[in-house]
C-alpha cells in the first residue's frame, strides 16, 4: 500500500514539474521524448538489420529516397515491415503471394501502413500494388508503389520505386 502511495505521489510530482516548466524547458523535454521514441522505433525489438543479401526495403516518398535500416520478420509481424528513424512501411504479407509475376492490389481490406516523422504521422495506402519479381533459393523480392492518405489532411504521400527483399520462411 505504501508503495502505491509513493508511486502516485511521484507521478503527481512529475506532472506538476512538467506543467510548471517554462516554454523552453518543456520544449526541450518534448524534444528529448521525441528522440527517445524515434530511437526506440528504429530499433524495434525483434527487428533485423537490413543487408544486401538478407532483409532489404527501399522506396521514394514524394521523390525522396527512403531505406529501411531494420525489418521485422514477417512471420512475427504478419506484414512486411521496414523501419528507419521512427518511420516505417508495412506491406501486406501472405506466403501465397510468393509467385513470380503475382500482383497484389492494395485496397481498403489489403492496405499499406506508412508511418512518417511529420505532423500527420500515420497514413494508409489503399491505391497501388505490390508485385513479386523474383523467388530464389531461400528469398523473395518484390516491387511496390502506392498513394498514402489520411482523413486528417488533404495532402497525400506518393510512394514510388519501392523494393523489398526477404528470406523465405523455412517451410517454403
Structural overview:
The protein has 172 residues and is α+β, with helices and mostly antiparallel strands. It has two domains: 41 residues; 120 residues, no CATH class. It has three helices and eleven strands, in the order H-H-E-E-E-E-H-E-E-E-E-E-E-E. Strands 1, 2, 3, 4, 5, 6, 7, 8, 9, 10 and 11 form an eleven-stranded antiparallel sheet that branches. Strand 9 and strand 10 form a beta hairpin. The radius of gyration is 20 Å and the shape is globular.
Task: Write a brief caption for the model.
This protein is an alpha+beta fold and 172 residues long.
Report the mean per-residue pLDDT as an integer.
Answer: 82
Query: What is the structural class?
Result: alpha+beta
Runs with pLDDT <50, length 5+?
1-21
Task: Give the % helix.
Answer: 25-40%
Number of strands: 11
Radius of gyration: 20 Å
With helices defined by DSSP (H or I, 4 residues minimum), what is the helix count? 3
Q: What's the overall geometry?
A: globular
Q: In percent, how much strand structure appears in the residues?
A: 35-45%
Number of domains: 2
Q: In sequence order, what are the helices and strands, one letter per element?
A: HHEEEEHEEEEEEE
Distance between the termini: 54 Å
Main sheet properties: 11 strands, antiparallel
Amino acid at each position: 500500500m505504501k508503495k502505491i502511495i509513493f508511486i502516485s505521489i511521484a507521478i503527481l510530482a512529475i506532472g506538476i514539474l512538467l506543467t510548471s516548466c517554462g516554454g523552453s524547458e518543456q520544449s526541450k523535454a518534448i524534444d528529448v521524448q521525441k528522440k527517445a521514441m524515434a530511437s526506440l522505433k528504429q530499433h524495434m525489438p525483434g527487428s533485423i538489420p537490413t543487408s544486401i543479401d538478407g532483409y532489404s526495403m527501399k522506396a521514394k516518398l514524394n521523390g525522396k529516397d527512403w531505406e529501411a535500416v531494420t525489418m521485422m520478420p514477417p512471420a512475427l509481424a504478419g506484414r512486411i515491415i521496414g523501419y528507419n528513424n521512427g518511420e516505417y512501411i508495412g506491406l501486406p504479407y501472405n506466403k501465397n503471394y510468393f509467385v513470380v509475376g503475382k500482383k497484389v492490389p492494395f485496397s481498403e481490406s489489403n492496405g499499406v501502413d506508412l508511418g512518417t516523422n511529420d505532423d500527420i504521422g500515420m497514413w494508409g495506402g489503399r491505391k497501388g500494388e505490390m508485385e513479386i519479381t523474383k523467388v530464389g533459393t531461400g528469398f523473395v523480392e518484390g516491387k511496390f508503389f502506392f498513394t498514402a492518405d489520411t482523413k486528417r489532411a488533404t495532402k497525400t504521400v506518393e510512394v514510388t520505386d519501392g523494393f523489398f527483399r526477404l528470406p523465405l520462411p523455412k517451410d517454403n
